[in-house]
UniProtKB/TrEMBL annotation:
The lineage of its organism: Bacteria, Pseudomonadati, Pseudomonadota, Alphaproteobacteria, Hyphomicrobiales. Belongs to the binding-protein-dependent transport system permease family. LivHM subfamily. GO terms for cellular component: plasma membrane. Keywords: Amino-acid transport, Cell inner membrane, Cell membrane, Membrane, Transmembrane, Transmembrane helix, Transport. It holds the Pfam family BPD_transp_2. CDD domains: TM_PBP1_LivH_like. InterPro entries: ABC_transp_permease, BCAA_transport_permease. This is Branched-chain amino acid ABC transporter permease. GO terms for molecular function: L-isoleucine transmembrane transporter activity; L-leucine transmembrane transporter activity; L-phenylalanine transmembrane transporter activity; L-valine transmembrane transporter activity. PANTHER family: BRANCHED-CHAIN AMINO ACID TRANSPORT SYSTEM PERMEASE PROTEIN LIVH, HIGH-AFFINITY BRANCHED-CHAIN AMINO ACID TRANSPORT SYSTEM PERMEASE PROTEIN LIVH. It is found in: Cell membrane. The chain crosses the membrane at residues 12-36, 43-62, 68-91, 103-123, 143-166, 196-217, 249-269, 281-300.
Length: 314
C-alpha cells in the first residue's frame, strides 16, 4: 500500500507540475489585465509542434540533450513572440473597453491558432519524439522515470525563475505596479505596454515548454489537445487563486493529486462503475465546487480599491 501511494504521488507531482506551468500563463495575464487569455491553451499545443520542427532543423535527434535544450529554448522564444503578437493585434486595441470584447477576441484567437496548428501539423495524432531522457530507477519500490524527474526539475526551475523575475527585478516591480493600477503606473513614468508585453511573452513561453513536456511524457500530440489541458490548467489557476503565482503552482499540484488519486481509486471504490475514462470529470467537478464555495481560490486574490470599483462597475 505504501509503495502504491508513493507511486501515485510521483505520478501526481509530474502531472501537477505541467498543469502549474500552464496555469501560470493564465494567472499572470489575469493578474495584470483581468483578462482570461483563452488562446493560451492553444499556445501550449503550438509549442509542442514548434519544438518538433525546431528539433528537425537542429539535427532531428530530439532526445539528445543539446538538441532538446536548443529546441526548447527556440520554442520558448517563438511562442513568446507569438503571445506578444496576439496581445498587440487582438487585445491591445480593445484595452479599456468592456471585458466581454477582449474575451471574445481571445476565443477567436484560440480558434485561429488551433486551425493553423491543424493545417501545419495535420489532423492525425503525432507520435511524439521524446525530448526527455529515458531510463528508470526505484525509490522504496516505486518506479520513477528520468522523464518524471526532468519534468519536475524543469518546472521547478521555471517557477522559481518566474517568482524571482516578478519579486526581485525592476521589470517585476513594473509588472506589479501595472497590475495594481495601470493609470497610476503611467503617472510615475512606467509605460504599461512593456510589462504587459512581457507577461504575454513569458506566459505563453511557459505554456509552450509545458506542451513539450506533456507531449514527451505521453508520447503523442494532437492539434486539439490544448482544449482539455487548458481547461484543467484554468481550473488549477482558479483553485489556487487566479492572479496569484503561488496560487497557480499550488492549484496545479493539487489538481494533479486530485485527478491522479481519484482516477486510481474510484474504479475500485465504485466496483468499475466509474473508470479511468472519467478522469476529466474530477477536474471540472473541482472547478464547479471552487466557484460555488470559494470563488477567490485557496490563496485568495489580492484586490485593490481600484479593482473593487472596476468589478463593481462591470
Amino acid at each position: 500500500m505504501a509503495t502504491l501511494l508513493l507511486q501515485q504521488a510521483i505520478n501526481a507531482l509530474t502531472v501537477g507540475a505541467i498543469y502549474a506551468l500552464i496555469a501560470l500563463g493564465y494567472t499572470m495575464v489575469y493578474g495584470v489585465l483581468r483578462l482570461i487569455n483563452f488562446a493560451h491553451s492553444e499556445m501550449f499545443t503550438a509549442g509542442a509542434f514548434v519544438a518538433v520542427f525546431a528539433a528537425s532543423l537542429l539535427g532531428g535527434v530530439a532526445g539528445h540533450p543539446g538538441v532538446a535544450l536548443a529546441a526548447g529554448f527556440a520554442t520558448f522564444l517563438a511562442i513568446g513572440f507569438l503571445g506578444v503578437a496576439v496581445e498587440t493585434v487582438a487585445y491591445r486595441p480593445l484595452r479599456g473597453t468592456s471585458r466581454l470584447a477582449p474575451m471574445l477576441s481571445a476565443l477567436g484567437m484560440a480558434v485561429v491558432i488551433q486551425n493553423v496548428v491543424m493545417l501545419v501539423g495535420g489532423r492525425r495524432p503525432l507520435i511524439y519524439p521524446s525530448f526527455l531522457p529515458r531510463g528508470v530507477f526505484q525509490i522504496a519500490g516505486a518506479v520513477v522515470t528520468y522523464k518524471q524527474i526532468t519534468i519536475l526539475a524543469v518546472a521547478l526551475v521555471l517557477m522559481v525563475g518566474l517568482e524571482l523575475l516578478v519579486s526581485r527585478t525592476s521589470l517585476g516591480v513594473k509588472i506589479r505596479a501595472v497590475a495594481e493600477s495601470a493609470e497610476t503606473a503611467s503617472l510615475v513614468g512606467i509605460n504599461p505596454n512593456l510589462p504587459i508585453a512581457l507577461i504575454f511573452f513569458v506566459g505563453p513561453g511557459l505554456g509552450a515548454v509545458a506542451g513539450i513536456l506533456y507531449a514527451s511524457y505521453y508520447g503523442v500530440a494532437t492539434f486539439s489537445m490544448g482544449f482539455i489541458i487548458g481547461m484543467k490548467a484554468f481550473t488549477a489557476a482558479i483553485l489556487g487563486g487566479i492572479g496569484s503565482i503561488p496560487g497557480a503552482v499550488l492549484g496545479g499540484l493539487l489538481l494533479g493529486f486530485i485527478e491522479t488519486f481519484a482516477t486510481a481509486w474510484m474504479p475500485a471504490l465504485t466496483h468499475g462503475l466509474i473508470g479511468t475514462e472519467y478522469r476529466d470529470i474530477f477536474a471540472f467537478s473541482v472547478l464547479v465546487i471552487i466557484l460555488l464555495f470559494r470563488p477567490a481560490g485557496l490563496l485568495g486574490e489580492h484586490v485593490s480599491e481600484e479593482t473593487m470599483v472596476y468589478k463593481r462597475d462591470f
